[in-house]
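U., I forgot to send this yesterday:
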Amino acid sequence: MENDYTTGRVAELCGVTKRTVQYYDKENIVKPSKISEGGRRLYTDEDLKKFKLVCLYRNLELPLKEIKNILNSDDQYKMLINILAEHQSSIDAQIKNLTELKERLSALLEEIKVNKTMSIANEKELEQLIIRKKHHEKIDKMTYLLLGFYVVILFLSCIVGALLGGIAMYLIIGMNILLLNALIFFHSAQNAYVCPTCNKKFTISFFRDMLTLNNGKKGKYLECPYCHQKNWLAETFKDE
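Result:
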């Protein structure tokens, strides 16, 4: 048996306002199929089903104009596929733009926090900053990868050296020392530090890098060559 629904009941079942139901009626999107003797507008089960579908499309943020075109189309599924595909492409473009904007904001915010001032003067400088930061992030990942590779080699070479003994053990120790020095040289050549006291950026020598402990994200405990204050300093990119 088919049910009839008033405007208020449709609004309640679909989680919208009565004004929304009336507006969709006025715009010929979902019109009631019946009018009672007293002039009340009544929706059938099929009307309710159609209205719920419209609510689904609206929750997907499809414009009412496109929803109306879908409902009035001779081939609703074909049109729906085309519209959803276009909508998805539009969202992908928005996500890309927002991701790029977030990246720019993050780079600028971090630069201001580090330097305690607005050091970026124009769009070109911001783009260059982002490029340098991306390059430094790649270098940072490579450093940790090389460190992990070195630890594996050290572990395996110690086992091999202990088994072979004699001069082979000394050769392996020498090789490990050379690899460690190469890793430290690579690290010192790629990184710089910013003093939180005077906000000046500086680099350190190979030997200073070798003799100073690194505490992960906190960086190195260093003395600033400008203000001579000691702090834990995180690594950052070198200026060109």
